[in-house]
Amino acid sequence: FDRSRAPRDCIFAYRAVRGALRAYRSDGVLFELGIFGKSREVFRRTVGFLGAKQERLGRIRYGGFYAQRFSDPVVSVEGAGVRRVYDLTEPQSHSMIANGLVVHQCGEQPLLPNEACNLGSLNVARFAREQDGRWSLDWDELERVVRLAVRFLDDVIEVNPYPLAAIDAMVKANRRIGLGVMGWADLLFALDIPYDSEEALALAGRLMAFIQDIGHDQSARLAEERGPFPNYERSIYERGRPLRNSTVTTIAPTGTISMIAGCSSGIEPVFALAFEHRVKGVDGERVLPFVSQSFERFGRQRGFYSDALMGEVARRGTLAGIPGVPEAARAVFKTAHEIHWSWHVRHQAAFQRHTDNGVSKTINLPADATGQDVADAYLLAWREGCLGITVFRDGCKGGQVLNVGVGGDAAGAPEATDALDDRVVRPRPHSLAGATYRMETPIGTAFVTVNETPGGDPFEVFVQVGKAGSDTMAVAEALGRLISLVLRLPSPLSPRRRLEEVISQLAWIGGGQPTGFGAAKVLSLPDALARTLGEHIGIGRGPAPEAAKAPEGGRRRVGDLCKECGQATLVYEEGCKKCLSCGFNEC
Fold this sequence. Notes:
The chain is built from 16 helices and 18 strands. It has 587 residues and is α+β, with helices and mostly antiparallel strands. Among the domains are: 108-266 and 341-394, Anaerobic Ribonucleotide-triphosphate Reductase Large Chain, CATH 3.20.70.20; 272-334, no CATH class; 433-549. The strands form 8 sheets. The protein has a 3-stranded antiparallel sheet, with no helix packed on it. The protein has a 3-stranded antiparallel sheet with strand order 14-15-16. Strands 1-2 form a two-stranded antiparallel ribbon. Helix 6 runs parallel beside helix 11 (341-352). It is globular.
């Protein structure tokens, strides 16, 4: 539809960074795209909107439309020129709305129009060598592989079949490559160096400086052999030694390829010391447990290795709260959330000082981090010379807040009764007493709160597991809300009898990752909830023994629910969500 209007000379004015006053003008040309009938459902499923707008779109009726036939052939597609527009960043997913299209920014590899990424990563843990019981880095072998990798990435530019001539021309004009690293945490494990130490920072700087120097030297040798990149004379290198590539190093996200290579991701600390890969094949699904080989080697050398210990590490994913682990192991084998955020920033800066492009790194903050902590992280990154920073605070998505005060008070609350009345849902009193239970489940430690009326009848249930804003927490909250609704609706059954019926429905629901053995075996979150509710009213199998014995600090760390395999192992690393079980990556 033609929605053109009269041209306007100045819609608004602004002052540019360098002080120039600029005015935004409009020629008034405007067209509106209408999507109707069945096409609207196709748009909702395949494209859609963001946030609340998508929810409103989902409430529109999609049935009963006539079939649509497209009879207008496309004769040609011709360019109509280029216009300057303003791109707005969407704050929740950090995507950009560019001319109506949702695009995602990349902080590690800034590209010119029509350029393409050409990245490669070295598993630096593979260069650790043991001699006489001591581990060190094989610098000679690292140099050989760096030179080979630079030549390989330059060859990729020549053989890659680019889809457009403009992309082919721009890529070959600048010949941008990005050689980086992964397996950094595994290398520190092998060398017995804590991630949060000055020794680790010094090694990080030395390692990346070595890769940068050798990479640039190899690019210069290729320039002598094959010629420098065509735009060399207009580049920052015009008076220096000619290079084959405009950039040589980048530390890119390696969430997927690091899982294929069996090493830690990028320069990140490990998210967990143990997890499970779930692999689907023609013969069904197989579970492949993974425990850090470096930790296993460390435990055998120090004499504290045992199958029971490794099983506990596999269950928790961290050494926190596990007795019998030496302090030396606790210092070296820390996970991402056990390391203060300042060390994350300083590691990124140590690598950034010797990297042509950007560095992919997630700065993990605890759930109780304040706005000042985030500001301090930004300022530290700026002072240390980082090109960009990704900060992720546990629970920062801000899930639905539970409403626990819906008017009224305890004195005016209706008494529990079996008789039906004209109320739809009994209002909640101002104050209720109850008990909170801690229960180990296959997707983490759950906290179940059961509140009762003054007469002792169960009235509401709250379930908390996982991080606020996660799918795991959403499922738990939904279970609590539905059980509370059953208890508060009018019914000829007493609240206790209704809760018994709920328990009978939830008990023995199986999942993909049961925990515990024998009578203590918990099959799933619903099964754990049934056990807890049964304990509260005095029926059922009773609590799992480990729920009472779990040491402080031993809460199992889990991620969000993975849409691919359904496991609660979707974690946020390197600015992206990836699944530790199946390798799914959202980026």
